[in-house]
Each structure stands twice: as structure tokens, then as C-alpha cells.
Specification:
- The chain has 16 helices and two strands.
- It has 440 residues and is mainly α.
- The protein has two domains: 185 residues, Growth Hormone, Chain: A (Up-down Bundle), CATH 1.20.1250.20; 206 residues, Up-down Bundle (Growth Hormone, Chain: A), CATH 1.20.1250.20.
- A hairpin with an 8-residue loop joins β1 and β2.
- α4 runs antiparallel to α7.
Amino acid sequence: MTRQTPNYTDQETTGVLQAIQNELADYLYHIKLFSKNAKLYLLGSFLIGVNFHVFQLLLNLYLRELGFEESQIGYIISSRAVGMTLIAIPAAMLLSRVKLKPILLASCLFFGIFSFGLSTYQEFDLLISFSLFSGIVFAFYRVAGGPFYMRNSTKKERTHLFSVSFGMMIMEGMAGSAGSGQLVKLLASQFDNLILGYQYTMYVGILFSLLALIPFSLIKASKPSSEENKINLSLKQFKERGSFYFKITISNFLVGMGAGLIIPFLNLYFRDRFHQGADSIGLFYFFVSFSMLAGSLAGPIMAKKFGLVRTVVITQLLSIPFMFIMSYSYFLPFVVAAVILRAGFMNLGVPIVTNLGMELSNKKEQGLVNALLMVSWTSSWMISAAVGGQLIDSYGYTFTINITIGLYLLSTIIFYSFFKDVEMKTDSHPKWIIINESNR
């Protein structure tokens, strides 16, 4: 009698599939717990985000088609970062104390108006003004997200709500990038005018953002929750915690400086170096967004194995070789792959740095630390986007990308030197444990 040998491979496969099915069921269960307000906000956020990414892809190309130089385009981009930087902390302080529905409606309306100005008028000074004010109103909308989720969720589903929100941001980029590039090509062919193709496509993006007024208007306003942290500033607080605030923001600032030199000009990089049209560039950006989504999903897995700090360091270092390819290669498929992989590795660490900042903060200062991280990023772009345009004008893309590489390396070294000892892993504690900065 022949003995049946168990098929362990089939059993293992069945076990893995069952585990995945259970995880999906658990995720869907928690999504069903989302409040009506949260679902309406997610919908409105998606609609505004589509417009944001349409402009992120097309505005530079449109301005270049109008005859603006990279240095001028850099000033227009940086003026939006100026607006976001100036208002971020005041907005965070205000939004931690007031009802958010009127702020959301006003931000949505004015973001549409200023976006219309950017895509319609062609005078340099006007474009600077519209970009500045669009940054201000967009900062109000972006900063409102955290307080809104706190007020309209419970501890049971809150983690899933923030996770879905981050995933929605990436899907906004995928929809805005792929769709807008193809629409430019279609409309430019229809009207036999490339500039009109850009303008009408951006008008479609504006329509998406204005549609967000519908779900936002259906939100039932709620007051600040008892769990929400009111942001306060004091000289005593900065004396006691200023060192930590500097440490958690300086590496973020340096990464932002490096990114701001080249990332806002990637569409022009593909246009100028490889002679690509908006439709092809939009497709490249679609895959960049997909890479960012994959990175965000891989982040928690890597952090569990390597810890928060080492995950950031490893992924930032892994992005460097791809930056060299972008700098020196003229072979389009090779460069596209490098751009996609760089985006995945560099953006994998973004939410991890925020998470680390929250873990190392006292509860009463978490809102302030979150705002400081945002300001460190936007202020760096405010400077580097303007400088980046001038560097590209004068020295080209290779020189500018090499400076970005240097800033990434410097940021990584500083980040590791500051935070290498804030996590521990021992035989008694097999998982990475955060040692709170305030207790060190």
C-alpha cells in the first residue's frame, strides 16, 4: 500500500492565501467603520488632489511653451512654496481650534480661482502672485487633514483612515498624471494649438477641484475633539526642546533642498533631454506614482525588520545610484527606470520620518512637530526651486542633479548621526523599541 505524502507546498500556499484574505477582510471591516464625514472628506480630497497633480505635471511644460526660461519657472514654483511656508504654522494653530468645514470650502474655492489665474494669464508678475496665493490656500487644506481625521474617527479605525488617506494621495497622482498627459495631446490635436491643449486640460483639472465643494458642503461640522492637541508656542518650550526640533527637521530640510533643485523640473528634463511630449511624460509620472505606492506599502515591512531610522538611511542610500543614472545617461528606457525606482526608494522614508518625529515627541507637541516638518520641507523648496531653475539655465541638468546627490548624502549622514541610538533591539526585546527623545 502506497503512503500518500502530504503536499506541503499546497498547504503553505493555501495558508498564505487565507492570511491575505483575512487581512483584506479586516481592512474592509475597518473601512466600513469610517464616518460619513470621513468618507466625504476622502472624496473631496481626491478631487482636489487630481487638480494638484494635473498642474504639477503640466504647468512647467505650459510655461516653457509660452517661452519662459527655467529660472523664471523656478521663481513661479518657489512662490507657491513661499505661500505654504508662511502660512503652515499659523494655519496649524488656527485649525486646531476652529470648525474645519468653512476652511475646507473656502480653500477649495480659492484654490480653483488661483489655479485658473495660473493657467490663463501670461504676465510673469501675475503668475508669481497666483502661485503664491494658491500655496497659501492649499496649505490650509493640507494642514486641515490631520485635525479633521482626529475629529471624525475613533481609535478603532483611525490608523486605517490615515492609511487610506495616504493611498488616496498617491492614486490622485496616478489619475492626474496619466489622464492629463493624454488629454493635452487630444485637445492640442483638436484645436491645432498646443498651448490651448495645455490650458483646457488644466481647466478640466480645476473643474475636478471645484467638484470637491459638493462633498465638503455635505460635511457636518464638528468642534475640536478632546483628544486633539492644540498647538502652542513658547520661548521656554523652544529652549527645552529646540535641539530636538532642529534634529528632526534639518535632514528633512536638506532632502527638500536636494529634491527642489531637480524634481519640479523633471518634466522639463524629459522634454529637453529626450524630446518627450506631455502624453509620454504623463505616463512616466503614472509609473512614478505607482512606485511611490509600492514604497509606502513596503515601508512598514522594512521598518519592522530594520527599524525606522535604518530604513530611512538604507532607502535614501539605495536611491543614489539611480540619481547618477539620471545625471549621466541619455538612454531613455534606462533613465525612466531610474526615475521610477528613485521615487519609490526616496518616498518610502517620508511617512517613516513623520512617524519617527511623532514617536519622539511629547503628546502636547506633536501638532507643532508635524507643522515644523511641513515647514522644513516647503521652505527648502522655496529656496531650491528658484535656485534650481537658475542652475539648470546656466549649467544644465547633470551639474544640478549632482548637487542633489550631495545634499541627499549629507542629509542621510546627519540623520543617522542624530538618531542611530533612538532605537534598540536586544535578545529580550526582539523588536525595535523607540527610546523617547524627551527621556534620553
